[in-house]
Amino acid sequence: MKNFMRHVEKKPMTYRALLFFVASFMYSHAGACSCVRPYTVQDNVTGANEIFVGRVVAMKKLASHPSLPGWSGVQAEVEVTQNLKGNSQKRTTVITGKGKGTCGVPMLAGMSYVFFVNEKRKISISNGTREYVKGHIDSDQYVSEIKSYVAPLSNLSLHTDAQAPH
Hints:
Elements (H helix, E strand, L loop, with lengths): L1 H9 L1 H21 L8 H7 L2 E13 L10 E13 L5 E7 L14 E6 L12 E3 L4 H27 L3
Antiparallel strand pairs: 1-2, 1-4, 2-3, 4-5
């Protein structure tokens, strides 16, 4: 430690610059994940318009989106393999940010994901969307947990509809 301090005393500007660089690097990476909040699976299920398991079949970059002016990201065409909430079509599209603070989901064509989709067809890492591997215990447990929260919501909707005046 004493040797290190001697070097710092001899070249204080060099070490200050190094410290600044390291601190800036750490800050930029911390900011990239600032959108991740401690939402529960139940929160994500309640907040999603649609939830489904699907395989990404095609992707394209978006310079902007009509419902999100000034936003750029990625659009993925998805083949739905299992519908969990809502009425997803067999083929649908979703959009996500590119990352670096946009909460975008890093996707690859050919891979499967559990998608939590909002009203603008947007998905993010903070809303529950994540990779799905059929037969993997973590993926299967995740889908089971989602189903356990979707079922009560469906029953609540049916109960409310039954009480509505005709």
